[in-house]
Design brief:
By secondary structure, the protein is an alpha+beta fold. Helix content is 25%, strand content 28%.
């Protein structure tokens, strides 16, 4: 059973958006594999593959969340949310200057994935909107995301959601050029 956090999405079939938990890790791993396998070779760097342990550790970290979209019982989209704290101030951003705020004001969305079989339904935009709602409810005032410069579709989604690009950097792990997005909320 899934705990819904918003009404069903307005598109074909029954779609439900909800928080994910440790019971969903197998489905999260399967969705990631499906998305990765369907990317052209020159787009594989858009995803930093996570292991089952990575997903489990993320879900165990205080303040960290995952949101998923289900079509019936199938997970068809997901994103991870990192909410830093004094104890765990890491954001996961690889090339962005520190912000002039306390960690509790920050929220970072990572690993937004949509099944290739369900693209074109604006599900990614809906996940971003849900993340912004969760941030507002949790008094997060600094919303961050990092997108590959070559991934026009991804960074366009964030721009359309009102989360502007504020800087350009390079991921030192693979030399991918990235855009850093920041939205400051009041």
């Amino acid at each position: 059973m899934h705990t819904a956090i918003a009404p069903s999405l307005p598109c074909a079939g029954q779609l439900t958006i909800c928080f994910l938990n440790a019971n969903n890790v197998d489905a999260m791993q399967s969705l990631q594999a499906e998305v990765y396998q369907n990317l052209p070779p020159d787009c594989k760097s858009f995803i930093v593959p996570k292991t089952m342990e990575d997903f489990n550790q993320h879900l165990k970290r205080p303040g960290s969340l995952a949101i998923g979209v289900f079509h019936g019982t199938e997970l068809i989209a997901q994103c991870l949310i990192v909410n830093p704290s004094d104890e765990h101030p890491e954001t996961g951003m690889v090339d962005m200057r520190p912000l002039n705020c306390v960690p509790q004001e920050i929220s970072v969305i990572q690993g937004l994935l949509v099944s290739p079989r369900h693209r074109g339904l604006r599900i990614g935009a809906r996940l971003i909107a849900e993340w912004q709602k969760v941030c507002a409810q949790g008094n997060k005032t600094r919303l961050l995301v990092e997108t590959a410069v070559a991934n026009r579709y991804s960074w366009s989604l964030f721009l359309d959601a009102g989360i502007p690009i504020v800087s350009h950097g390079i991921d030192p792990t693979d030399d991918t050029h990235v855009f850093n997005h920041l939205k400051i909320c009041n």
